[in-house]
Design goal:
Blueprint: H1 2-24, H2 33-45, E1 49-52, E2 61-66, E3 73-78, H3 92-107, H4 110-113, E4 116-121, H5 130-136, E5 145-147, E6 150-152, E7 155-156, E8 163-172, H6 188-202, E9 211-218, E10 229-238, H7 241-262, E11 265-270, H8 282-295, E12 300-301, H9 312-316, E13 321-322, E14 325-327, H10 338-343, H11 347-369, H12 371-386
Helix pairs in contact: 1-3, 1-11, 3-11, 6-7, 8-11, 11-12
Bound molecules: zinc ion (2 copies).
């Protein structure tokens, strides 16, 4: 850890400054052009080779530093999208500079260790998570491990997230005067209502990890006009992709039933990209925790139940990955709030950067210098894969 301390000191002010710039000028997912530019410029200044807009994802980037000696490839994932109306209420400004700082710190000692370090710019985590496409497109193929650290109120070991499908149901009927000629109308809103009723009936027969929550985004315009078009948008989540696929299969039947009952037709589509569940690589996580404990005395919680979903799930299906939380010294802090955003530019926010950079860089160093460690990490990944913990197919077909 000592070896990274000096390097951290020399970049610390820049990292804090860039994090504050992102905080001052938050950009939404897939619009993070200025944020990306700030990060890319700094990485370029630190001798990283830059590629921008990978595979038609305009605000993505890959910054690579390759040493003269062969060795593993370590990736640090940067997020830099903000939330509408709240700004950096999820602290992605801190994630961005911490992953970048860890990459730069590691690059400085790589002429001794060998290997390659990549800082990967992954846009739009809060909406259409780019990591989903990046995982599909093979961007992680030549990467040995992928790491990032997310800010939170208190520190938490890398745990699990829920698999998620975002499905839209568009019902089409036939408009008519609701009082003068109701017998000629087909009410599309009724299709939506029967869909809700069916899904509510299904709740009794799913495992407790399943989450089904939706809204009616279009439901007609006037009470005296039979709505000929109505739309519901749902999120469906479960602890594993396998369970979720089974639930979604049943929901499809419910949608067909709702259409049959009401004489409407229904069209299903994925309105956001699907997330797979996060499978934390335990060997990688253990190594990271060991390093985190050397830079903080705070208690570190273990996560017993997954709650949200994230595109890091898809990454963990193709490469050993971790997504730990590092606390900002505030038990009552709730993500996706203005208070959380403000916290990122306090002393506790700055402490997050230091803890994150040092523990992520040290974990990268451990992998570069201990081939046995990487072997056990990969072995675990392969074991999970053959045990069927992963199931990569998803979507509506
Ligand atoms: Zn968030
Ligand atoms: Zn987040």
């Amino acid at each position: 850890m000592e070896k990274f301390l000096n390097e951290f000191k020399s970049i610390k002010d820049d990292l804090v400054h860039i994090s504050e710039e992102l905080y001052q000028h938050p950009e939404l997912g897939n619009e993070e052009f200025k944020s990306k530019q700030l990060l890319v410029n700094y990485l370029k200044k630190n001798n990283f080779k830059i590629e921008e807009g990978l595979n038609n994802i305009p605000t993505s980037f890959r910054a690579t530093y390759t040493s003269d000696l062969p060795g593993p490839t370590i990736a640090y994932l940067a997020e830099y999208d903000a939330l509408p109306g709240i700004g950096h209420g999820c602290g992605h400004n801190l994630i961005a500079v911490t992953s970048m700082g860890a990459g730069i710190a590691l690059s400085k000692i790589m002429e001794q260790t060998g290997g390659t370090v990549i800082v990967l710019g992954t846009p739009a985590e809060e909406s259409d998570g780019a990591k989903v496409l990046m995982a599909e497109q093979g961007i992680f193929n030549n990467i040995d491990v992928a790491m990032m650290a997310h800010p939170g109120g208190v520190s938490e070991e890398s745990g699990a997230t829920l698999a998620l499908d975002a499905i839209q149901f568009a019902f089409t009927g036939k408009t008519s005067h609701a009082a003068a000629a109701p017998e000629q109308g087909i009410n599309a809103l009724d299709g939506v209502i029967q869909l809700f009723n069916g899904i509510n009936a299904l709740r009794e027969h799913v495992t407790p990890d399943v989450r089904m929550h939706g809204v009616i985004s279009e439901g007609g315009t006037a009470a005296n006009v039979v709505p000929d078009y109505a739309v519901a948008q749902f999120y469906f989540r479960a602890e594993t992709r396998r369970t979720l696929n089974e639930v979604v299969q049943k929901v499809k039947h419910i949608a067909d039933g709702a259409a049959a009952m009401t004489g409407t037709t229904v069209e299903l589509s994925n309105y956001e990209l699907s997330n797979d569940n996060l499978v934390t690589n335990q060997h990688l996580s253990k190594q990271f925790m060991k390093n985190l404990r050397t830079v903080t005395n705070e208690p570190i919680q273990t996560k017993d139940k997954p709650s949200g979903s994230s595109d890091i799930g898809n990454v963990s299906q193709v490469v050993p990955a971790i997504h730990p939380i590092i606390g900002m010294n505030d038990k009552s802090l709730v993500p996706h709030t203005k208070r959380f955003a403000d916290k990122t530019v306090t002393e506790d926010g700055r402490a997050f950067i230091k803890k994150g950079v040092l523990s992520l860089a040290q974990t990268g160093y451990d992998i570069l210098t201990d081939s046995k460690l990487l072997e056990t990490i990969k072995q675990e990944f392969d074991n999970n894969k053959s045990a069927g913990a992963r199931l990569a197919t998803y979507g509506l077909d």
